Amino acid sequence: MSHLPEPIHPATVVRLPDGTHAYADQLPTAYAGPQVVHQHIHQAPPDRTVQRIALGSGVGAGAVAAGVYFGPLLVGALTAIAANIAFLAFLALVLGWGVHTVVKSVGDADGTQAAKNIRTAARRRR
């Protein structure tokens, strides 16, 4: 410790992990104290209850592993299929509305009379 100059004010001399000495009030920031690590968890771990029940009931580990792998895969596939069906239903609704609007605007009195004739003929058959 003789290689350190005498401090102007009384200070504590500490030995660093690499074997060198330094004054406690002049420590590098890496040695200043414990660093706080903030860890953010963005996704919860999967729930293993079903797998534990399956293993307890005698199902093999391969079946449980397949459930762990294919379960979320199946949910994702079904969600994608449902989204496609919803989009196609919306598309059919828009196209139907467009056809209805065009037919209604292009139609004339003859078309209106033909629709009435069909309606009354259908009522008479009942």
Describe this structure as you would to a colleague:
With 126 residues, this protein is mostly helical. 56% of the residues lie in helices and 5% in strands. It has a two-stranded antiparallel sheet. β1 (13-15) and β2 (21-23) form a beta hairpin. The radius of gyration is 39 Å and the shape is elongated.
List the helices and strands and how they pair.
Elements (H helix, E strand, L loop, with lengths): L12 E3 L5 E3 L25 H8 L4 H46 L2 H17 L1
Antiparallel strand pairs: 1-2
Summarize the structure.
With about 130 residues, this protein is mainly alpha-helical.
Largest sheet: 2 strands, antiparallel
Principal-axis shape equals: elongated
Distance between the termini: 113 Å
Helical fraction equals 55-70%
Mean pLDDT: 78
Q: What's the alpha carbon Rg, rounded to whole Å?
A: 39 Å
Task: Quickly count the helices.
Answer: 3
Structural class: mainly alpha
Strand percentage, roughly? under 5%
Q: What order do the helices and strands follow?
A: EEHHH
Major sheet strand order: 1-2
Number of strands: 2
List segments where confidence is low: pLDDT < 50 over at least 5 consecutive residues: none
Which properties best describe this structure?
126 residues; mainly alpha; two-stranded antiparallel ribbon; 56% helix; elongated
